[in-house]
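A further point concerns the way the authors explain their paired sequence and structure data. For illustration, here is how one protein appears when written out as sequence plus C-alpha cells:
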Amino acid sequence: MRVISCASVDELPESIGNWKHLRYLEICRAGLLMKRLPSTLCWLYHLQILYAKKCKLENLPDDFGKLTSLQKFESDGLTYYAGGQMTFDLEKCEEGKRISLIKKLNQFRGHLKIANGGMLSKDQAAEAELKNKKYLDELTLNMNSQRSQTIQENVIEVLEVLQPPISLKSLLLQNYAGVSLPSWLLPQNLPSLKSLTFAGCFELKSISYPVISQGINLNEIPAVGIFLSLADVTIDGCRNISSLEQFLCSDYVPAIKKIRIEHCEMLASVPAHLTSHGEGAGEG
C-alpha cells in the first residue's frame, strides 16, 4: 500500500507504522478531534506527503525528524516543504498554542517563515527552539499582532527567545513593535549572515552594536563585532531610526555590496563612505 486517504477519523491507529511502503497519507475531514499523531508514524521512512490540513495538531512525535523522505507536510497553520520553505501562521493556530509543532523539525533545510509572531507569549516562542535548527538558511520573523498595544509591549521578550541558529544566512525582521533589537543580533551569533532586512519596524530607534576599541587588531578577532559576510542590507519603513553611522561603519560591515533604505523619515543621511562608493541608495 502506497497511498492512504482517511476520512472522518479521530485518531490514527498505532498499526499505521506497519505500512512500510506508504508514500502518501491524507487525513481529511478529521475536524477538531485529532490532536496528535502516533509515534509509529515515524516508522514510515518512505513517506513523502503527509496532508492533515484540517487537523489541529498540538505536537508532533519525538522521532518526527526520522521521516527523512518527507517532502511536504500540511497541518492547520503549518506548511512544510523539505529543502524549500516552511510557513507557520500564528493567527491560524489559536494564538500560538501550537508553536511546538515546529520544535521537532530540526532537519528542515531552507526558509522558515513565522507569520503573526507578535501573538506569541515568551514561553510559547521558546517552544519553537529555533536555535536548534542548524540547517536553517533563511528566517522571516513577521512580528505582526492583532493584540492591543499593552500586550505588544512584550514583543521584545518574545523576539529575544526566537534566536536563530549560527548557520543563518538571511534574516528578515518585519512589523516588529519593539524599540530595541534582541541581544542575539550580533556578529558573533550570526557569523554566516549575508542578507539582513528590517521592514515596517516603526518603533525601532537605532541599529547599533558595542563600539570596537581602537586598540583591538580586527584581523585577530574576526568573529567579534564584525559582520564579515554581510553583503546586502535593506531598511524599509523604519520611520524612527535617525542614524545608521555606527551600524553601517565600514569596520563593522567590510563585505557590504548593496544597501537599500526607503521610507525612513527620521534618517537624515547614510554614511558617507557608502554613497561615495556607489554602494548605498536611500531616501528619507
Observations:
- The helical segments are 122-127, 149-152, 155-160, 272-276.
